Amino acid sequence: MVVVPPLVVAVVLLAAWEAWVRLREVRAYILPPPSAVFEALRDDPTRYLEALGETLVSAVGGLVVASVIAFALAVVMAHSRVLERALYPPALLVKVTPIVAVYPLLLIWFGFGVWPRIAVAALITFFPMLVNAVVGLRAIDPRALDVMRVLDASRAQIFWRLRLPSSLPYVFAALRISVPLSLIGAVVAEFLSGSAGMGQLILQANGAFDTPTLFGAIFVLAAAGIGVTALVSYVESRVLDWHAASTAG
Q1: Where does 44-163 have alpha helices with state H?
Q2: Tens of pLDDT, residues 216-235
């Protein structure tokens, strides 16, 4: 039942779009009706699926790389204010540096292939994961920390039993932010250079004034972003429910 309201809104918006385009007799190369977009999707679904597969490899690969590196650095920063002050400026530099400016360097370092696109997706998702992980690792109950110290718990025990569980809501919040960012990074990298992926499909459709295909690619990307975000939310609910139940038990 949760999906019914957004589905109703989507149907109403698509119907209004279709009616407006037909009543105003808008030319298809300017704004195609939804029916033309769905026809483009139906006529050649393999083209979209293959392009989406390429983009998802880059996006998910970049997200995984960024998450692993960011969480490792967050653990170090959460345990030392000195290291946090030392590492935060370079991390901020990664965030504020335009990806377009460094992409030629990525091509030189990694060559033409999937790795530069993974690197772009990683760079664009790194900072949100780092900041949220640091905050989460420090968002612990002071009383619980005092109890563990009284019990002479080691740093490893405090990390696994207190800091890591406390950080999970923040990490999943960062993932929900980073999923669309990783898709954006992958598509931008495909715009700049590449022979496959949704970015190249959009560029080809744009060059041919094939707006139904262009909108079809946008729809597919939006659906992929919603699907992956929903998957992250589902995993979050299962992990956090399990953690809450195990803690209560």
Answers
A1: 45-79, 81-96, 99-110, 114-138, 142-150, 155-158
A2: 999 999 999 999 998 998 88
Main-chain phi, psi angles of 152, to 5 degrees:
60, 40
- pLDDT tens profile 143-198: 887 788 877 777 888 888 888 888 889 999 999 999 999 999 999 998 887 668 89
Interatomic CA distance for residues 152 and 225, integer angstroms: 45
Q: Which CATH superfamily is domain 44-248 in?
A: MetI-like (1.10.3720.10)
> Is the alpha carbon torsion for 181, 184, 189, 194 positive or negative?
positive
Distance, CA of 23 to CA of 35 (rounded, Å): 14
Residue 248 host element (H or E) = helix 211-248
Mean pLDDT over the full length of the chain: 87
b/e for 176-190, b at 16 or more Cβ within 10 A?
eebbbbbbbbbbbbb
CA distances from residue 203 to 121, 190, 215 in whole angstroms, order as listed: 19, 9, 12
Give SS3 for 249.
coil
> How far is it, in rounded angstroms, from Cα 192 to Cα 190?
5
Tokens 């669309």 map to which residue? Answer: 180
Is the per-residue pLDDT at 201 higher than 70?
Answer: yes
Per-domain residue ranges for the chain? 1-31, 44-248
Q: How far apart are CA 12 and CA 4, in angstroms?
A: 12
pLDDT at position 2: 65
